[in-house]
Amino acid sequence: MKKTSAFDSLFSNVFAGAVSGIMTVIASISYATLIFSGECAGYLELGIASALLSATVIGLVVSLRSTSQFVIAGPDANISAIVGLMATAIAAQSRSESALFTALWISLALSCLLSGAFLFGVGRFGLGRWIRFVPYPVVGGFLAGTGWLLARGSFKVMCGVPLSFKTIRALGSIETLVHWLPGALFAIALLAILRRFRHVLILPGILIAAIIATHVVLAVCGITVEKAMADGWLLSPFPSKLLFETFGRLSLAGLDLSLLGSTVFHLGALMIVAAIVILLNSASVELATGKDVDLDRELTVTGVANMLASPLGSLTGCIALSRTILNYKAGARGRIAGVVSALLCGVLLVFAAPLLSLFPRPVLGGLLFYIGLSLLVEWVYDGWRRLSRLDYFLVVGIIVIIAAWGFLPGVGLGLLVACVLFAINYSRLGMIKHVYSGARYRSNVDRSLVEEKCLREKGDSIYIVQLQGYIFFGSAYPLLLRVQERLQARDLPAVRYVILDFAAVNGLDSSSVLSFSKLKKAARLHDATILAVNLLDSLAKLLVKGGVVDEAGARDGSSPCCFRSEDLDHALAWCEERLVEEAGLADEGQKRRFADHFGTYFPTAQSIERLMPYLERVEAAPSDVLFRQGTPSTDLYFVESGTVTTLLEISGQPAHKRLRTMGAGTVVGEMGLYLGRERTATVKAESRCVLYRLSSEALARLERDDVELASALHRFFVRLLSERLLHADEEIAHLVS
User: Fold this and answer.
1) Domain covering 592-736 in this structure, CATH number
2) At 468, which helix (H) or strand (E)?
3) Fold (CATH) for 430-589
C-alpha cells in the first residue's frame, strides 16, 4: 500500500511538472519574441536561449530552495516588458550588428546579475516587509502599465508593427491585419473563457489546441512550414545547436560600452518591478494554496538563482504565479515537479531547438495580448468597482503616463505619488492620540481636601497631549496649531503648563523640529512651560540639538522653557505641586494638624477628640517601611505631615514601580484593612512624616465602645473610596470620549 501511495505521489508530481514545463516553454518563447521584436527581431535566437536558460537555471534553483515545494520559477511577463524597453533602447543607438548582439547579451547578463544582487540584499537583510509599504494603487498602476506594454508589444510579435496612434493605419492594412487579428481574437476568447471557467487544464489545453489548429489550417491551405516561416506565421528556423551557436556569436570586437549607458534607468525600474512582482506573486500563492510563504526567503533564493544564471546571459526571472498555481492544482506537492519543469526547458533548448520554430506567432502574440489585456481589465474595468475614486484615477494616471511617455516616467510618478500618499494618509491618522486637562487627568499623588479643591479649580491650566506614531513635518504642524489654539483660548483658564507625552512615539523626523521650535516660542509668548516626557534618547538628541529641549531644564518654573521629565506621572505631579505652591497651600498643608485635615469629615468637633485615644502617633524617617507587600493587612495610617509612596515590587526586577504618593491629609492602607487580605504593595516614607496608626484591634474596640463615632469613621472611608472611584471613572470617560 505504501509503495502504491509513493508511486501515485511521484506520478502526480511528474505529471504536474510536465504540464507546467510545457506552459513554461510556451511562456518563455512568448516573452523572448516580445523582447526581440522590431529592431531586435534578427536576434530572436538569443532571446529564446536566454529565456529557456532562465526557466532552467532559475527554475531549478528556486524549486529546490523555495519555502513552497511546488513553486515554478522562470521568466516573467512584467519583467520581460521592461527588458524589452531596454533592448529597444540599445538597438536604437547601435550601428553594428555584431556589436549589438554582444551588447544585448551583456545587458541581459548585467540586468540578471544586478537584479539578483538587489533581491538577495533585500531578502538577506529582512527588508522585504518594506516593499509592502508601496501603496496598492501605485502597484496597480505599475502592473497595469506593464499590461499595456505587453498588449502593445504583442502586435510586434504577431505582425511586426507595435500598437500606437502612429501605426493605426499600418495595422489596418490587409497585410498586417491578417496576422494580428487572429491572435487578438484568440486573446479575447481566452480572456472570456478563463474569466468564466477556472479549471487548471483549460489554459494549457487551449494553447496546445491552438498550436495544432494553426498547423492544420496551414496544411489545408497548402502552406508549407518553410513558407509559413517566411510569411511570418511561424518563428524563424533555429539551428540544432542553438545554445552553443548563440555563445559562438559573441564578440568583443567593436563593442561600444556606451550602448549600455541607456539601460541605467531601465535597470532601476527592473529591480523595483522584480521585487514588487515577487511580493505580489508570493502573496497570491499563499491565498491560492493556503501555504505560508517566507517573503525574505523567496527574495534571497530568487536573488541567488539570478546571480548564478547571469554568466549565461539569462533573462531575469522570479516566481511565476500562474504556472505555480497550475502546478499545485495539477497535483504537485513536492520539489520534483519544479525540477521536471526546469529540466524539460533545458532538454528542449539543448537537444530539440529546431522544434521551437514550429510555434505560431499568432498564438505567442495572442498569449502576450491576453496577459496584457487581463492586467488592464483587472485594474481598469474591475478596479472601478474595487478601488476608491482617488486610487482608481491614480492607477489610470500612471497607465496614461506609461503609454504616453514610457515606463520610466510612470515609475517616477508612481514613486513620487507613493511618498505623497504616505505623507497624506499618515498625517490623517494624526500624531495626537489623546488630549487631557489637568482638572480631569491627575497624577498618582493623593492630596489633602484643600489641595484637591485647589487642583480642581486650577487644573485646566495644565494641558496634556499624548502623541503617537512617527512624527514628521506634515503631522507635527497640526500639533502646533492645536496647542496654539488652546494657548490663545479666552474662554478657558490660561495654560501654565503643556505636557507632551512621547510614550507612543517611535520616531521623529528632523523636519518636525521646526514645528516644535515654533511651539516653544508660542509657549514663551503666553508665559507657559512645556515638559517633554517619555522621550527616547534618539528623539531627545534631535530636540536638544534643535534647541527645543533644555536637558538641564529650569525645573523651578521660573522661566518658560521646554525640558525633559522622566514620565507623565512625575511631570504631572511637578505641575500640580507648582499650582499648590502658587496658591500658598504647600507649606500650610504640612503645618496643619490632624484635626485640621480630617475634622471636616466628622459631624462634630468633639469627634476627633473621641477618636484620638484609638490612634497611635508614629514618626517615620525617609525610606522607613510602613508595611510591606505580601504581609497581612492589620492597620491603616492617617498622614498628618510628610509624604509616603506606594511601591509595587515586581518579581525578578530590582526597581519598584511607583503606584501612588500620599501627602498630608490623606489615608493609606484602608482597603487592605477592610478586605482583610495581604498587602498588594509596599508603602514607604518619602520624607520625614508624622502619622496616626489605626490597628484592626483598635477599630474593633471603637466599633464596640462608640457606635456613633465608628459609623462616622466608616462614612469617611466610604466617601474617601467613592471619591477615588469617581476620579478613576472621570479619567476613563475622558479616555474613551
Assistant:
1) 2.60.120.10
2) strand 462-471
3) Transcription Regulator spoIIAA (3.30.750)
